[in-house]
Specification:
By secondary structure, this protein is mainly beta. It is built from three helices and 24 strands.
Length: 416
Amino acid sequence: MLDHEVSMLTLVAIGLAAAPTGFYDLGFVHAGEGAFAGGVGAPSVEWDGEGERLVMYFESPAPAADIPEGCTNAFRIGRATSTDGVTWTADVALSFGFTGEAASPRQCSVAQPAVVFDGIRWNLFYSAAALPLEAGGTNAPTGIGWATSTDGVSWTVQADTLVAFETSSIGLASAAVLNGTLHLAYTEHPNLLLMSRPVAGGEWSVPSLMLDHETVGTWATNWVHGPSLACDELDAEPLSVVFGGDTTAPFARSLAYAGSPNGTTWTVSPGSPLSAGSLEYGLLNHWDVLHAGDGWAMWYSQTDPDSGLKTIGAAVTDTELGPPRPRACPDPWAVPEDTGDTGDVDTGDGADTAEDGTDSACECETSGCGCSSSGNAASALTFISVAAALFRRGRAGRDRQGGRRTGLMDRGPGSE
């Protein structure tokens, strides 16, 4: 489990994350306030190697006074940052919003963000909606939009939707990058579809079937949805997805895992649906996962029974946690490894060097020197220690009460 001490080697080595078998709930970690006082949900989290922090984008409903005329409701997208994955600081201003303009695909709403840094720019995908088709109806979905940014704050928006709404429920997107190619997965009821953009071109491929609800298992007889893509270059199946599946009746929700060597063929893990851990999968609204060393971290949204508002929580696997990793592989934030003395040319990072020519700032085992990987050991240590401490405290509380959660774990969804 997580009772062991975290070693420096663990912090700096890039681990191979095995398929998760279950997540352990850390409880709610981010609630809406200020501009987002109406609640926060649908988190999408990415690692910012330049800022050495996690960046989260989330949806939040607009106050009634700000809803454009004729729209049923309106959602905007906010942004928050964290160095440990547990304590989040939200930007005061919105990150991305609806237009309120007639004929705009995002006239009424932008929601369900999906973010990935591709090595050059930040990519934000979102579900857009416009005026209801008839009086008293709900906002009309227009499709999945796409915006890009150099800093993750100011966005250049594609005028038209990337994936246009046609006849069925569509949305809940996620993106990852494998060897320079951006992959976008999304839900089109009742299945998951995937499309990719060639490395050297601006055109996207025709969407292809990714996972079929009729073949993944009887636990998904209604539909499969909510993909969360990740990438691990060390894995034989570097692209992976954690996704949801629902039964028709009686309704039940499960989470599952699948991997792919190329984004074309997908294999659902025999350990699916996930059954271990303390997270109540059936109560989740949305979820998003990232690699964290040999393990995984998850951020999810669910209605807080105390406030009645959507709130964001966190969970981790009980495998060895390590530095969070981005959704792109190879790692776009990676720093070339300092190989030491190369004669008259100093290729180091400016730090003092030891007598043997190695960089004295790189204090790690030779088998896992962190100078060649993204992120920061201090940030990773904070992430690991906070998550591990919360997990241990929550588990200890359950043990003391014969399985009933106490302490911090009581803040989690579904607690009594």
